[in-house]
Amino acid sequence: MAESSLISSMPDVFVEIDNRGRVLKYLGGGQKDTILKPTEMVDQRISDLWPPDAAKAALRNVRRALDTRDELSFGVRLPGKGHNYHYRVRLIVRGFNRVLAILRLVQRPSDVTDSIDLTEIDTLTGIPRDTAFEEQLELMLADARLRERGMAVVAMDLEGINRINRSIGREIGDRLLRSCADRLQRQLRGTDSFTRLGSDEFVLAIADVDTRESATGLSDRLREAFETPFTIDGHDIELHPCLGIALFPIDGSESGTLLSNARVALHEAGVTGGKRHEFYSSTMRYRVNQRLDAKEELRWAIDQNQLRLRYQPRFRLDNDKVVGLEALLRWDHPIRGELQPEEFIELALAGGLMPDVGAWAMREACRHAAAWQSDGLDLAVSVNVTEAEFSHPQFVESIQAAIDETSLEPHRLQIELTERMLMSHDRGYTIAHKVAAIGARLVIDQFGLGYSSASRLIRFPIYAVKLSRDLVLKATADEASSALCSALLAMAHELGWNTVAVGVEQREQLDWLRKRGCRAVQGYFLSLPLLADDVPEFIDSLRDDGTDGNVVELPFTSTLAG
Fold this sequence. Notes:
Blueprint: H1 2-9, E1 13-18, E2 23-28, H2 46-49, H3 52-68, E3 72-80, E4 83-93, E5 98-107, H4 130-147, E6 151-157, H5 160-167, H6 170-187, E7 193-197, E8 201-207, H7 212-224, E9 230-232, E10 235-237, E11 242-248, H8 255-271, E12 277-279, H9 282-303, E13 307-316, E14 322-333, E15 337-339, H10 345-350, H11 354-374, E16 381-384, H12 387-390, H13 395-406, E17 413-418, H14 419-424, H15 428-438, E18 441-445, H16 454-457, E19 462-467, H17 469-475, H18 479-494, E20 498-501, H19 507-515, E21 520-521, H20 535-542
Parallel strand pairs: 11-12, 14-16, 16-17, 17-18, 18-19, 19-20, 20-21
Antiparallel strand pairs: 1-2, 1-5, 3-4, 4-5, 6-8, 6-11, 7-8, 9-10, 13-14, 13-21, 14-15
């Protein structure tokens, strides 16, 4: 009698189930459970009570327990009240053809207050903690071995959440994280499970994935779930998940190995741009380990303020006045000395640090330009972005944040990118117009070397175009290059685009460009890169009338690869 009273007061549900999946008896517990409704389960088949995938998993495990006579556990996800609820089911054999099933609710949506074991759920998102997930993963692997089926472990990174925490606030970031968990949950079946690792990474265990083809379909489905932007307190937020996939038994037979390999694949996927998936391969681990060592050194450099900006003056050819400055990134390495961008940009890209490096460079360039603005200098500064930065879901927001933080007049910031980036990105047109809407100006680097026709480029809000160093060098060396440069300058003029030539190192080049109407030039022939603090003195040294001079506004760019 005391035992019956004890069971009745427990939140767990106790029922007996036979080998056909029929609920024979309700023994007590879970009286407040409005999802299972245990008193209504008696004489019902599980297949009539639960969704097909959950019912099949339950019946399969009941028969497995009866065959092996072993106690076992598994998880199911059941719908109710517009949400999914995660139950852990423990089976104990009680006779020839029946088992005792103990059902415990281990996950509930954040706005539902059913009594559950809070030690097994993530209080922020309402999904299983990593310990509960690892237990479920072990059970799923045991089931996959028994049935000789495959499964997938998927590591998913949502890097933009950290940027949201920094730029908009942690409260918005936490709500975004809960919305992400809800979207993921809707993509999973009752036989699947997932958890959160860190602030922006999820790990999923997906049953019955036997081939890379089916795993690719799974990846597409997961990424499609994030195509619609999140709207939180008036903020439209886009996230593009990056996925690393490890398959059982191809990539490992134990849970720890599969989890590790999925995260290695995730790291490799991040290197390739962030909007795709990668399957684990044995060669990845060596590459990842090499990158991690170098990545830590570069991260340390960022934390220790070892990155620097130098500024290359740009001159307007019709009056020889300084009209802008191109910011050049340097790493002031304590042992190797000053490093050029080509010595570490690839490392930043491979290590997934380019968004952090780029965000630092943009803020620093805006800070310096705002200081010159306060000193009465009519100068501007812009930042060259890599494809990894341009593809980042918070790219436009990061530009706005840099402008707001420094109080820089928006037209003084110009964003430099290649036409390939504009044309190959599926949202290039939209992003370009959002940048223009902020008030920043768009500059096309390496103009004439891309594959796009002018008829396509005129759709974009282009403020200026840059002739590459190679074109400038060849323009005075052979007739074909001279004709090409002349045609590009003429076309840009007719389309209303300002023109900038870089890499001017000889008087002959300067005279050639001036004669053909190039608007502005820069290069070592005119000036070496300057420290930010030296810019006002340099400007002052060029004035010949004792006045403030005519420092004219003209497109110029700042490049990380200069």
